Amino acid sequence: MRWLNRGSQGEERLLWSRDERFVAQVATRVPHGTHIVIASGAVLIGTGDEMADAVVSALAGPVDYGLIALDPLMPPVERYLTGLADAVQQSGIAYRVGMLTSPISAYHKVMDAFLALGRRDAIAILYQPVVSLSTMEAIGYECLCRPSAAAGSIDEVVRAAVETGRTNELDRLIFEKVLTRTARLPEIPAHITINVLPASLADPWFEPSALAARCRAAGIHPRRITLECTEQQAAPDQAALVRRVRQIRRSGFGFAVDDAGAGYASFSLIAALRPSLIKIDREITRGIHSSGSKQALVEAFVGFARRIGADLAAEGIERVADLEMLRSLGVPLGQGWMLGRPNAMPKPAKRVPGQPMPPRPARKAGRPVPAAVPATTKRSTAG
Predict the structure, then answer these.
(1) Of 61, 198, 242, 265, which residue has the fewest beta carbons closer than 10 angstroms?
(2) What's the pLDDT tens digit per position in 166-205?
(3) What CA–CA distance (Å, rounded) separates 118 from 82?
């Protein structure tokens, strides 16, 4: 049995079949398609005449498959997960491959795929510089987790972890990968930050003294590491989060609030957490040179950070005009593709026209890099 959702030839379509060879055969005819092998078969996503009903049907012969038109109005993760579930269900063999159609089941499959990649070391850790806006020198690095295409984007993986209550599995894996990758570098950066979702901090694996011992065993002192919590997920228990953050700070780690101004954390909660670093969300940074309201908000963050003794960094700096405005407002740190792109090895900040040259670092054997403001380590999009 086949189910075909008919539509225009230019629309995006998803083909699923348990027969991987059949999907691979169709994929050879779709030059810009995305071909993914999954536990229950294979998927092909593409557009054009090659994904037309008649073409696929002629190639399939007796093979069972599902071919549907994807809804362009849905967000990507829901679009593809819903499309896959519908294709399997309507192919008539869902009961034989054990593929459920509930959203939670689909999210579990995303998490399972990501964890499987981690076990095969198929997850990349990249380093993006965080830059002093006064000297244009990289003072630390944000680590970005990039899974292969088989697990989707890291944003999709994070959402799946949150929806399934498996953030602790996600954060443990990423933390371990960052420690392992960083310990193998020719020179360990002065500072890195490892992103952790608020719910994961309650997990016993993240108990601060045990976590500090784990970091020392990898050859990285806790004072070089800042744990960064995103503001875009609500803390399940704010009082417990405040207590845990105090323990983290006493164990030598830094603590950062990410995406400030974009989500759940109020100024009062940030003040209670007493972070060592506050990161301003990229949506506030973007276009700040021409927005009086954004400038006023950043001025408030500058004063607020100064009063509680926290450092302040602006994310997503992509234009010289925004860089100049942030500097004039007193923001000390920044990051963005204009200042340095993610790389498999920590690299210096990029030279920005009209900006001061970074000082040449003194090279002395055995002399540690002076402590500076922590850099940031995030899972998702650069800058």
Answers:
(1) 61
(2) 999 999 999 999 999 999 999 999 999 999 998 899 899 9
(3) 25
Give the closest residue to 330 by CA, choosing from 353, 348, 311, 358: 311
User: Cβ–Cβ contacts within 10 Å for residue 159, how many?
Assistant: 18
Tell me, what amino acid is at 166?
A: R
Together in a domain, 56 and 125? no
Domain residue limits at 53: 3-101
The residue among 237, 236, 272 whose CA lies nearest residue 257 is 272
pTM of the model: 0.68
Instruction: Please indicate, yes or no, whether residues 84 and 204 belong to a single structural domain of this protein.
Output: no
- Judge whether 87 lies within some domain: yes
Alpha helices (H) along the chain: 20-27, 53-60, 76-90, 94-97, 103-119, 154-164, 167-183, 208-217, 238-250, 267-273, 282-285, 292-308, 320-329
Count of domains for the chain: 2
* pLDDT number for residue 57: 84
